[in-house]
Amino acid sequence: MIQITSRDRKVLFAGGTFIVSWLIFIFVAQPTYQESKKLNKKIQDKILFIQKCYEILNQKSYYKTISTENKLLRTTLDQRFSSQTKPALAASEQQNLIEKLSNQTGVNIIRFRVDKPKYVENLLTISTKVTTRSKLRNLTNFIHMLESNQKFMVIEEITVQRINKTDLEELQAQLTVSGFIKTMETESKKTT
Fold first, then answer.
1. Could you tell me if 95 and 151 lie in one domain?
2. pLDDT at residue 159, as a whole number
3. If we measure between CA atoms, which residue out of 106, 110, 111, 100 comes closest to residue 153?
């Protein structure tokens, strides 16, 4: 057999200790460190996620205010359109409104004629031709009240002529007033 000296024993012991230490580092310490690093990364990601959730929850009042504003805007827009969904009923409602405004301004309505409903910019439009007789000031007030009314109405066409050669302010006017129903044009109606 081979004789092992004390120096050789020390070298073998040191080499064995190094190999065992290296094996422990490779198979135990390094995987444990990598697992710990992955676990810390997951914890940090979850902390960030929770912080973002809290930020969103803290903005609840902002979203409530936006929702309230949207509801008010929708209500205001609903009031601007005719409350009727059928064109005949909407035309009747528009005619009553025009008569009411003419009575307030002193304009005499001679004739009404309701045209067929049509779609303008995807909104169903009810056009009414109104023939009136009045003084210039009354007609001006009538037109102003029509266009500034709560219901959205547009005067598409106006024709004015004098009817009395002695009184230059006595006028006969023919107005085409369009009101809108909140019915939107669908894609199938566009193609036909």
1. yes
2. 92
3. 100
